[in-house]
């Protein structure tokens, strides 16, 4: 009887596993194979051994894209988590029209990243500079997307604006798991305001914090749509994220083999970062 | 027993998924007709090709023609090629991608196509020159060419009595004069990196040898030497341009020029339909970029804008040729050049758009040189490098990077060329 059950489970799993292998594992392996060739994406190709991997570490453009992507991911993750935690605390307190505000703040998440990107593109190119000129600020009167030093800020703003919605929802659900009696007991010991948050609320929502951190870092390391809509990697190649570079040069640039190698390395980097994050925050979790 | 039933469902689901996958790749039903699929890369001309498709299908019983004109078609084509899913005919430009496709042997030899004999020799030569190494046979039928120089607002020029400049000093003097009258000489849309290439190409053809890339591949010269003048003159142009040209895209620049915010826009003839869509009444003409101080050395930057290649995989070449015959019918070409302000590659009496008036002299005399960027490897992203250069304004750093990057991105091509020259005893 028990065996029968086990076999049932196994048989349910097999189709899913087959699909997973078909659409995930096999392409992954093929990508690894292509990373050892000078394949352009069409026609014939030669084996080049580890040349692509050696080139990766000497390619200034790839190095720059890693730096940019990590800078963006770290800053955006911090901004998103701080803001969404504050928002979640506000939306979890006893305010009027709470459901309406929760809905309103969730709205950015259901809009497509490209649509949002194009709207912000217009905003940064025309509206913001016009506003800057009106208040007489030199720094603000030119488009921030046209300056290689500030373009990443525009992308950061758009990424954050959209990502805060989902993170806030996760934090709100986290805050609702904290039982009221903990606050009452803490209140008797004098934990109110910031102390209450620091010593009671935050330790109890650490699991939600860690899931948010991992999701954020992973999402922003793979940032693509926003770049496509806002800058297309420019100006002066200053906002080329790794995903964008892999797509752009791999597909239309004729570097399929080389960018496959880049993708393999990038895959390893993301796995390492995610595992390290889980380990680190996992240690800090509190159980009631 | 229950487990088995579920297992069967699972397996049949799997089969279904697999079958769907296979069907997606295979030929679809075609009720006895030969199906010919064209993918062409000019989304601006989508309407024209849609009309041709209907007309063709209405007059031909044996062939079902399907034309698609997607945005960013080159990426779509290359993605399909990775899956080995080839259309029958592709409409592409005469650029480095064509060179790659010839080298990859995925295009069919069309030298037996009768219509090829009516194509002007100059354009067939351009295609020949684009081959990475001389390859037996011909692989494309040129359709139309474009020309890049400077578009100008004719009414504005007439109103102020400005003359068309013939050489570089006249050109800069004109720009200064326009500026002093409080009008913006140029608009640029450098946010779209590819537009950085338009003035670059237009000047480079008159200032650097036409085969400079091949000379560099053979190790005879360097870009630092050949491109210095182009780079310096490009920087000179910037002072006459809109403030912060890197904030605006191609559409923004076309719109601004259409609304008369600038007197000139150095871009190719391909931009005219876009500009007219904003302001149909604008009186546009064009002139050859007078990059050289010696007016006689100024040549028109013109290359193949659209050509059709039959894929090697195409099963029915006869049918493909029949479609080509239709596409190259004179009245169809005339319709195309009217709509897109293009220059036909076919011999014959065609009426050119008056907006190309300033260039017809060069066209008639054949004083034309192909775009230099048609020889740049796309992964080197020269457009972005020029954009970087225009932001940093450092000629030496730019040219040095150009030279080192060139050797790196072209090493497979350079090796190919060297191998070819060794075996062919050059």
Architecture overview:
Chain A is mainly α and 288 residues long. Chain A folds into two domains: 1-30; 35-283, MetI-like fold, CATH 1.10.3720.10. Helix content of chain A is 75%, strand content 0%. Chain A contains twelve helices and no strands. Chain A has helices spanning 2-34, 51-58, 60-92, 98-110, 113-134, 151-176, 180-188, 193-204, 206-221, 225-230, 242-252, 256-283. The radius of gyration of chain A is 23 Å and the shape is globular. The longest helix of chain B has 24 residues, at 2-25. Chain B folds into two domains: 30-145 and 303-369, Periplasmic binding protein-like II (D-Maltodextrin-Binding Protein, domain 2), CATH 3.40.190; 147-302 and 371-421, D-Maltodextrin-Binding Protein, domain 2 (3-Layer(aba) Sandwich). Chain B has helices spanning 2-25, 46-59, 73-82, 96-103, 121-130, 154-160, 168-180, 197-207, 212-217, 223-226, 228-238, 250-258, 272-278, 317-327, 330-340, 357-365, 382-392, 395-409, 411-423, and strands at residues 34-40, 63-68, 89-92, 141-148, 150-153, 184-186, 262-265, 284-287, 300-310, 343-344, 368-369. Chain B has 19 helices and eleven strands. Chain B has 426 residues and is α/β, with parallel strands linked by helices. In chain B, strands 1, 2, 3, 4, 9, 10 and 11 form a seven-stranded mixed β-sheet that branches. Chain A binds chain B through residues 4, 7-8, 11-12, 14-15, 18-19, 22, 38, 40-44, 61, 125, 129, 142-143, 145-148, 231-237, 249, 251-256, 258, and chain B through 2-3, 6-7, 10-11, 13-14, 17, 72, 74-75, 78-79, 81-82, 97, 100-101, 103-106, 190-193, 243-244, 246-248, 252, 377-379, 381, 384, 387-388, 391-392, 412.
């Amino acid at each position: 009887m028990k065996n029968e059950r086990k076999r049932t489970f196994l048989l349910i799993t097999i189709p899913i596993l087959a699909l997973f292998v078909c659409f995930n594992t096999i392409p992954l392996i093929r990508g690894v194979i292509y990373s050892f060739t000078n394949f352009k994406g069409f026609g014939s190709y030669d084996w080049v051994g580890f040349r692509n991997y050696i080139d990766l570490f000497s390619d200034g453009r790839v190095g720059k894209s890693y730096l940019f992507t990590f800078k963006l991911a770290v800053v955006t993750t911090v901004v998103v988590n701080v803001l969404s935690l504050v928002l979640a605390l506000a939306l979890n307190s006893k305010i009027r029209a709470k459901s309406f505000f929760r809905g309103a703040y969730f709205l950015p998440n259901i809009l497509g990243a490209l649509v949002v990107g194009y709207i912000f593109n217009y905003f940064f190119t025309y509206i913001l500079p016009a506003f800057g000129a009106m208040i007489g600020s030199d720094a603000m009167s030119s488009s921030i997307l046209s300056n290689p030093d500030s373009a990443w800020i525009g992308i950061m703003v758009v990424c954050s604006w959209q990502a805060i919605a989902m993170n806030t929802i996760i934090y709100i659900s986290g805050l609702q798991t904290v039982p009221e009696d903990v606050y009452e007991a803490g209140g008797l010991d004098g934990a109110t305001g910031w102390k209450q948050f620091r010593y009671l609320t935050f330790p109890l929502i650490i699991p939600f914090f860690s899931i948010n951190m991992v999701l954020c870092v992973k999402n922003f390391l793979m940032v693509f749509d926003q770049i496509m809509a806002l800058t297309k990697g420019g100006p002066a190649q200053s906002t080329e994220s790794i995903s964008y570079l892999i797509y752009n040069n791999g597909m239309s640039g004729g570097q399929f083999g080389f960018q496959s190698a880049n993708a393999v390395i990038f895959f390893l980097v993301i796995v390492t970062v995610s595992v390290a994050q889980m380990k680190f925050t996992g240690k800090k979790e509190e159980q009631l | 027993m229950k487990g088995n039933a579920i297992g069967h469902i699972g397996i049949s689901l799997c089969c279904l998924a697999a079958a769907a996958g296979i069907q997606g790749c295979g030929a679809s039903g075609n009720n006895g007709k030969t199906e010919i699929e064209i993918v062409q890369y000019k989304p601006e001309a989508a309407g024209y090709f849609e009309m041709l498709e209907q007309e063709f299908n209405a007059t031909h019983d044996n062939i079902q023609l399907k034309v698609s004109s997607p945005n960013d078609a080159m990426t779509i084509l290359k993605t399909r090629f990775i899956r080995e899913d080839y259309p029958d005919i592709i409409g592409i430009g005469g650029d480095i991608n064509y060179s790659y496709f010839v080298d990859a042997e995925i295009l069919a030899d069309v030298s037996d196509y009768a219509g090829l004999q009516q194509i002007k020799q100059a354009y067939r030569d351009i295609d020949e020159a684009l081959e990475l190494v001389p390859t037996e046979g011909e692989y494309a039928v040129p359709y139309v060419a474009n020309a890049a120089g400077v578009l100008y607002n004719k009414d504005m020029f007439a109103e102020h009595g400005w003359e068309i400049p013939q050489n570089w000093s006249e050109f800069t003097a004109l720009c200064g004069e326009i500026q002093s009258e409080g009008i913006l000489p140029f608009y640029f849309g450098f946010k779209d990196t590819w537009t950085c290439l338009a003035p670059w190409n237009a000047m480079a053809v008159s200032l650097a040898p036409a085969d400079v890339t091949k000379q560099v591949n053979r190790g005879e010269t360097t870009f630092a030497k050949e491109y210095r003048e182009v780079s310096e003159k490009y920087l000179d142009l910037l002072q006459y341009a809109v403030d912060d040209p890197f904030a605006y895209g191609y559409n923004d620049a076309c719109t601004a020029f259409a609304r008369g915010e600038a007197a000139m826009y150095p871009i190719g003839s391909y931009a005219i339909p876009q500009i007219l869509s904003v302001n149909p009444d604008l009186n546009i003409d064009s002139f050859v970029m007078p990059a050289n101080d010696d007016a006689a050395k100024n040549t028109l930057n013109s290359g193949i804008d659209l050509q059709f290649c039959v894929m090697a995989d195409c099963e029915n070449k006869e049918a493909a040729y029949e479609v080509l015959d239709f596409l190259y019918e004179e009245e169809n070409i005339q319709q195309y050049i009217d709509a897109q302000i293009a220059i036909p590659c076919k011999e014959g009496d065609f009426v050119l758009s008056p907006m190309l008036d300033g260039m017809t002299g060069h066209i008639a005399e054949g004083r034309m040189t192909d775009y230099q960027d048609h020889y740049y490897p796309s992964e080197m992203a020269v457009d972005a490098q020029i954009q970087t250069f225009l932001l940093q304004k450092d000629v030496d750093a730019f040219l040095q990077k150009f030279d080192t990057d060139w050797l790196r991105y072209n090493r497979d091509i350079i090796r190919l060329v060297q191998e070819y020259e060794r075996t062919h005893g050059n």
